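Fresh eyes needed here. Have a critical look at this protein's tokenised backbone.
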Amino acid sequence: MSAAKAPLVFITGASSGIGQALAARYYAAGYRLALSARRTAEIEAWASAHALDPDRFRIYGADVAQVDSIVSAGRACIEQQGVPDVVIANAGVSIGMDSEQFEDLDVMAQTFAINNLGLAATFHPFVGPMRTRGSGRLVGIGSVAAIRGLPGHGAYCASKAGVVSYCESLRGELRASGVKVVTLCPGYVDTPLTQGNRYGMPFLLQPAEFAERAYRAIDAGSSYRVIPWQMGVVAKLLRVLPNAVFDWGVQGRGRKKRRGEQ
């Protein structure tokens, strides 16, 4: 298949971690890549190191926390490469917060701006064109942290619960259009986002393994998938625990580092 006729995937947060692993997996599958991040130099270095065909990828500098920035990147993608077959809103942050600390309210605002509004703004340029075409996949990256609120993770857990609910709403809106909305909830993946965690991370996946499983779930058009499946079982068990039991179980659990903590 010529590069011009190959399917196209648009990925945010493509400069490292899950985003970069997904880019590698889709490139191996023959896709053209539309890669977006604030740190475009890191994408360029990665593409050079892996000898990517310049006819099969474009880089779009954008900050998902700024609506105009990420919407402009999406529109540029459509203009330069066409309407993607898959859009993966992967960019996200995870920062600990303490509501007693005034400055952590800014952390919550930043988290929502990136993880929630940024996700919706990522999808925005593509919804209409995909609906008109009658096909496409919009992929939201949630987290098992969406299932229950964890001490010190208020901003992150709330934002990822919002991702799950938002994608569910969008899925209903687009049900008859031919456009599928896929919600992926990773467990623990060995990325810069998790490497500073101060607690155990069961069923930890390498980014490439997560990307392989995510690729299969997206290709199948799954509406909702927890990866790995073992964390899905854990999440379901946590959901049905009585509050008193759950609260006792997480008492004393290590908290995610707040902004500025080493």
Remarks:
- Residues 3-250 form a domain with the Rossmann fold fold (CATH 3.40.50.720).
